[in-house]
Amino acid sequence: MAKAVKSVFFCQECGYESGKWMGQCPSCHAWNSFVEEKIRPAVPGSRGVGGGAPGARRSGANVPRKLSEIEFREDERVSAGIGELDRVLGGGIVKGSLVLIGGDPGIGKSTLLLQMCRHLTADGQKILYISGEESLQQIKMRANRLGEGAGEMLLLCETDLDVIQGEIEKVKPSLVVIDSIQTMYSAELNSAPGSVTQVREATGVLLRIAKSEGIPVFIVGHVTKDGSVAGPRVLEHMVDTVLYFEGENHAAYRVLRAVKNRFGSTNEIGVFEMAGDGLREVGNPSEYMLSGKPEGASGAAVTCQVEGSRPILLEIQALVARTSFNIPRRTATGMDYNRVNLLIAVLEKRVGCDLSSHDVYVNIAGGIRIGEPSADLAVIMAVLSSYLDKEIGDRVMVFGEVGLSGEVRAVTHAAARVQEAKKLGFEKVVLPAANRKNIKEEGIELVFVKTVTDAARALRL
Predict the structure, then answer these.
(1) Fewer Cβ atoms within 10 A, N terminus or C terminus of the chain?
(2) Are the beta carbons of 27 and 14 closer than 8 angstroms?
(3) What is the rounded average pLDDT for all residues in the chain?
(4) Residue 438 above 50 pLDDT?
(5) pLDDT of residue 250
(6) Distance between CA 378 and CA 447 in Å, rounded?
(7) Residue 302 belongs to what domain range?
């Protein structure tokens, strides 16, 4: 007798599985996110797990091997033709890898992949671009806007996984792009495209193709309202690399960040600028972030943040104004709000700066976000500069972590930060005294400080 079809409820936000419907997901705490899906039992003797006679070995099945017998070689990489993308991927595209790119709608995911395909096609690679959201004419319009060079790229508008798998086996391309994974579906499943089951099945099929054929596959994933990739969390576990394309809609720059990478570091970022002819690489993010910095203005301090192996100079702006209310206001943009409040408390306690009757606004110019504590000293100096209405200096850079006692602690990659400041023409750097032994840079004035008070004296505040 055939087994009955089983009903299972999945959370559309995180993929949590339950035998009954629930109003709130116990995993991600999302409301009204459960959907019912029908699960058919596996047919005995099929290709699924457990098929075949007991004890029988399938043809071509893997057998255990000793670690000492396995030959190791460096992963062969192919350049994507875009330096910033190669940097984030760890040096290039690895054959047989499965890469997931997520980001807000309109951020530039499809544009970046189309530019990559254009460069690879110009190098003689056979590229298959599969779209489930746009027509062939729409892709052609965007390709014409990006420029010539992608005329030999193969385009396919299809959402059926069986058809897509057959075309990949027939064409045997050097690289496959899937735009997007939420539009793909398998006819063997009863759920709608974009559901948890369909996304998981589609990713599994593409993973088998990438590993068995050695074809790198790039898939585009939609994101939820909180910024994570839509679909089950297992989607990110199945792929080799997860890239997020970040950026504000009103800002011209875009940041490509790796949150998972089996073939490289997850600390590298790629910076792009959105233009009329597509995405342009920003080779010098420091110069780009400091463009438009006012000269001779108080409340502005330049610091350096290290993303992976890349130091980036940023401008921290602070505005201190007398409050009109009983409770002063504190605002932080681009930095942790609680961290800013802590630094303001250190400034009041250790330097003797009374801000109880003043509003304090802190902003990171350019829209980028700072996550490391090396910007603590620059934030304090910017707030103090605005409070005293004294400028710090246009060619001065400040960095260092600040403790609750007002001490300035050492930070990592201090030499790289100083070298970046020297390259951009800065004349003076205020940094922790604990980093003295790691820096031997000449041609730039280095001021080593132990406390916040020492830093204020060095900047004549």
Answers:
(1) N
(2) yes
(3) 86
(4) yes
(5) 64
(6) 14
(7) 288-458
Residues 230-276: pLDDT tens digits?
A: 555 668 888 999 999 887 666 668 889 898 999 888 888 898 988 88
Angle in degrees, CA 428, 432, 438, rounded to 5: 90
Do the beta carbons of residue 239 and residue 261 sit within 8 Å? no
Structure token pair of residue 153: 């790229």
| Residue 127 to residues 15, 71, 118, 159, 166, Cα–Cα distance (Å) | 32, 30, 9, 18, 15
Q: Pairing between strand 241-246 and 77-78? A: unpaired
Q: Are residues 447 and 398 part of one domain?
A: yes
Write b or e for each residue in 215-244: b if 16 or more Cβ atoms lie within 10 A of its Cβ, otherwise e.
Answer: bbbbbbbbbbeeebbbbbbebbeebbbbbb
Is 307 in the same domain as 268?
no
Residue type, 383: V
Domain count, the chain: 3
The pTM is what? 0.77
- Distance of CA 109 to CAs 105, 181, 240, 352, Å? 8, 13, 18, 49
DSSP run (H or E) holding 432: strand 428-432
The answer to whether 100 touches 219, Cβ cutoff 8 Å, is yes
